[in-house]
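Section 5.1 Outputs to date
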Amino acid sequence: MTTYVLVDGENIDGVLGGILNRRPGPEDRPRWDKIIRFAKDWQHDEVRALFFINATNGDIPWPFIQALRNAEFRPILISGPDKVVDDAITRTLEVLKYREGNVLLLSHDADFRGALEGLHEGEYSDRRVAVLGFIEHMSHEYGEIEWVEKLDLEYDAQAFLGNVALPRMKVLSINDFRPEDFLGSLDPTVPYSNQIFLINRNLNGTATGHGQTVSGESMTGEDGNHSDSQAVNGNGHQDFHHVENHTY
């Protein structure tokens, strides 16, 4: 069987930019070859991957397109009014309704809900369907479709370089809330700006309930620049803390 991978490139880039609070650079974006490997492992299928790009303004990123080709994606350049990429993906999902195969959609956009629901109608209702992205940013409407899997680009697909956690925020249970994590250190020698709290999961997918205080010493490398550091929480799990002032 075949797994069809459909990428809403604008949407993924926009959400990543919101997480980083700046325009993503090439080094920030997902490694698309890792997405292909993840898709192949997901169902051990042949993979056909389509990457949709809005080319309405005529500004075509040819080096990026070549990189996508090298990663086994087929770039699709679309021009037209309004949500042209959304329209193209919706049409593709509607055609896939009549084809055997599993579907992996990379987007957070609720506009695809109807087309996804259609994939479980008819002859191929037992197919596997998933949305891959940053789970906390996915439309709540996907959560209302029980058979659509919600997969995470960072935690499940491990699509980013190295072991650096993105600066993502997650909902904190009141049982895990510790005011000390947000108030900073009582030690006046430790700058408040270095007290970074991040609700995240480590690279093994284990949820971390609260942040750890990171000392100025542990955050500074030999060259004097800030870096990411690891700490071990009370449960013996490693927490990965994103730290300010990276040089990109």
